[in-house]
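Collaborator request, handled under Task 6.
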Amino acid sequence: MRIEVKELKKDICFQNQKISILKDVNMSFESGQIVTIVGESGSGKSTLLNIMSLLDDCTSGEYRWDDKDIFSLKKSEKQEFLAKYAGVVFQQYNLINNMTCYENVKVPLYLNRNVKCSERQGIVENMLESVGLSHRKDHFPKTLSGGEQQRAAIARALVNDPKVIFADEPTGNVDSENEKQILNLFRKISDRGKIVVIVTHSEVVKGFSDKVYRISDGVIRMETA
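Structure tokens returned to the collaborator:
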């Protein structure tokens, strides 16, 4: 799979003035790659990730997965496409507090029409094992460490076997040891032919990447990984 972003722009209006959040962004990446977008707070990196993961709209530009024009899809088609082909890992985990680790990971399967009810338990248990959380499956988010919550969020993003993982500051709230575990997990994911797109302000993540883009004031350029 090949993903391309061409001439992407994002403008907002604030106090009757146009503010450019993203300026003519061009990127491309392929299956098996970890792609990192590095930038300081306010640089536009999270906005870019939200657009690519179909959680936000852009002002203009092109966005293609192979030959499919993503921006031409209807809203319902975008939602179905996201559920089927993409997984999103949020910086603040976004786990549901009154659901166990197991139940949180299971949620996306309810949106997958290709998975039978009888298959869900096995899929979730295998996913929890792959991120080292089998022993914590009946625990609620507040009883998990930051690293464990992030791994649960990653398991939730992976449970539908998506082609692409979008991760927003996935190591921003964990210590260095958990950061290494999470990045090694992303490497295993990419080695299975998935695309992993990470936005971060951490320079450490660059060492785990195949392709690095740096964004500043909405302008993006490619760096050597």
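The cover message to the collaborator said: "The longest strand covers residues 17-30. The chain has one domain: 31-57+75-223. Please let us know whether this matches your experimental observations."
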